[in-house]
Amino acid sequence: GNITAGGIKSQWNNGSGLALFNYYTGSTGTVTLLGTLGQNVFEGNALAGMRIFSNGNVTLSNFLVKNNGSKYATDPLSAGMYIQTGGKVLLSSGTVAENPYNGILIDSYGSVTMSKMMVMMNGWNYLGNNDRSGIEIYAHDNVVSLTYSLVFGNDKHGLLIHDGYGSPILTGTVFFGNDLDGSGDADWIVY
């Protein structure tokens, strides 16, 4: 079935802030995190701020994902947000900041659309550079769109897309100050 939630505050947990599993054989249910019930806050959790596994579409709005993932974490499940889905991903009105691993890590077999996002200062911590991107997407030949967003100060790329369908659609989006270690990483790139 479908999972719908909102108005969640999950802070300073020893594991992930939120883990939703709608990924069972034969399931087609969606995951929706509503911002209309109040901002969703995932902060200071030892692992990911949120981990979502779904065969259906994932829609998230009005959220703050900050400072999640242990300072020693090298596991992708310790990204600020980790989403794995057989459907589409729609993220809107979110701030993702100061997560030592990727800010957002998505593995999607549908299109990925993000709007009104601020993704900043991810992929590093006070111990040094972890060389991770603000947003990393495994797109499986699907379209990626990022509109009216700000992506800056991330350790590696601002936006890294694997197996994307052409160039991403970037409208009204500003990238600056990424590649903190100065190794020549582009603000956005498609492999």
Would you give an account of this structure?
The protein is globular. Strand 12 (124-125) and strand 13 form a beta hairpin. Strands 1, 2, 4, 5, 7, 9, 11, 15, 16, 18 and 19 form an 11-stranded parallel β-sheet that branches. Strands 3-6-8-10-14-17-20 form a 7-stranded parallel β-sheet, with no helix packed on it. 0% of the residues lie in helices and 47% in strands. The chain has no helices and 20 strands.
Comma- or semicolon-separated keywords:
20 strands; 0% helix; globular; mainly beta; 191 residues; 7-stranded parallel β-sheet; 11-stranded parallel β-sheet
Topology:
Blueprint: E1 3-6, E2 9-11, E3 18-22, E4 31-34, E5 40-43, E6 50-54, E7 58-66, E8 81-85, E9 89-97, E10 104-108, E11 112-120, E12 124-125, E13 128-129, E14 135-138, E15 144-147, E16 150-152, E17 159-162, E18 169-171, E19 174-176, E20 188-190
Parallel strand pairs: 1-4, 2-5, 3-6, 4-7, 5-7, 6-8, 7-9, 8-10, 9-11, 10-14, 11-15, 11-16, 14-17, 15-18, 16-19, 17-20
Antiparallel strand pairs: 12-13
